[in-house]
Amino acid sequence: MGEIFTRSPRALAGTGPPARYRRPVELDGIDPQRLPVHVGCVMDGNGRWANKRGLPRTQGHAAGEEALFDAVEGALELGVGWLTVYAFSTENWKRPVDEVRYLMRFNESLLVRRRDEMHERGVRIRFAGRRDWRVPRRLIRRMDEAVALTEKNRTMTLTIAFNYGGRAEIVDAVRALVADGVPADKIDEKAIRTRLYLPDMPDPDLVIRTSGEFRVSNFLLWELAYSELVFTDVLWPDFRRENLFEAVREFQRRDRRFGGLDV
Ligand code: IPE
Ligand code: IPE
Ligand code: MG
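Above: the input record for the complex with magnesium ion. Below: its predicted structure, written as tokens.
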């Protein structure tokens, strides 16, 4: 049990919440001792949100920003230590060039506009994905700046899966194994895990996908082997911290066995 659920960072610090701290009512029904350590989000449905309003798809991406930062606030309120969001997949390059260009610029400006606020909140920003493949130089610079600014923060780690594909991550790990000259009989799960993009990142306990699609679309393939998956019809731009809390309640109703038996 202790391995599966860990206490919130606040509880781990041993100091407890400040005397005046009131647990917000919207956290009612959530057991703070059994929080997911790591939550992943497939932020899907921006285009459909915009279509429904007669807006260009890009307006849906823009509206997704508020959802993302409300989810970050919610995760901080909960005391979740790791939040990973899927922002751009290795397959999203197939989209029209104008949309891809918009997404590159949008992510660049989002990093510049939000990094100080994230830093103040104690959020460490990191990226998972193929950074040196097709991503514009300027955006890579912004990514590096955000990582450097926030690298000492430990309240929460926000990992942005950008130019990320689960299969690409495994391919890259296999390439690293070969480059390191690891013989076949020395290849085990640990040898692969230590060559993933962020080897110290715990596996996600809970993965939420919005927009009513029941698939993982190449998100964290290795890492989500035993994640609890929660699907919601909410389109990403409408997602708010309450939706995160509801997913955590659903997570806490699940019975995780990891291939074993309940005792
Ligand atoms: C998710 O929303 C954002 C990205 C994949 C970049 P979509 O753009 O996939 O929106 P839908 O799924 O077409 O509605
Ligand atoms: C997954 O959404 C990728 C991101 C949210 C960044 P997609 O919209 O790309 O996935 P599919 O095409 O519906 O499987
Ligand atoms: Mg989509």
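Notes for the reader.
Residues 38-163+204-252 form a domain with the Undecaprenyl pyrophosphate synthetase fold (CATH 3.40.1180.10).
The two ends are 10 Å apart (CA to CA).
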